[in-house]
Amino acid sequence: MGGILVVGELDGGKPHSITGELLAAGRQLAETSGDRVAAALLGPETDGASDDAVSLGADTVYLVQDPLLETPVPDTFLAALEHLCKEVEPTVVLIGKTPLGEEVGPRLGFRLGVGVAQDCLEIDVAPETGRVLATRAVYGGNALAKLTFPDADPQIVIIRPKVFEQPEPDTTRTGEVVTVRPV
User: Mean pLDDT, to the nearest integer, of 81-110?
Assistant: First the structure.
């Protein structure tokens, strides 16, 4: 299927600000790659957040609903995300560098057998390969490193908060909402 999958986080039933920032990053990648942007919202009741995610830039929203996802426990979220990634086969997965994202991102990469770019400040598409080109701070922030991914998908990128500006909601946007039950 391909596409860009944003791992959204919820705060009181609404998308957390990091979700909007990641959707902005996903839209930036989509402009160059032509991919569609999807958001994964995990929780026991996520229906109300789907319209918010669409208005912030998601073309598709995957509602991963289960009572076990009420509390953000990394192991539970990891299992649900692994199931979703195997089902929808995204090309790129964007995760926020939050306490949950820092736990889930690298472990998701391990389970899927792919690399992970952590603590990224910028993302783009490498013109020669069409793969994600991620920029991250190294040496305590004294230098920047650009990296890209080999041919394995998904390309998992963990993005630092506040490096992308959350877009203004566009309530006229429409999108598809798909309910997914984790196994």
Answer: 96
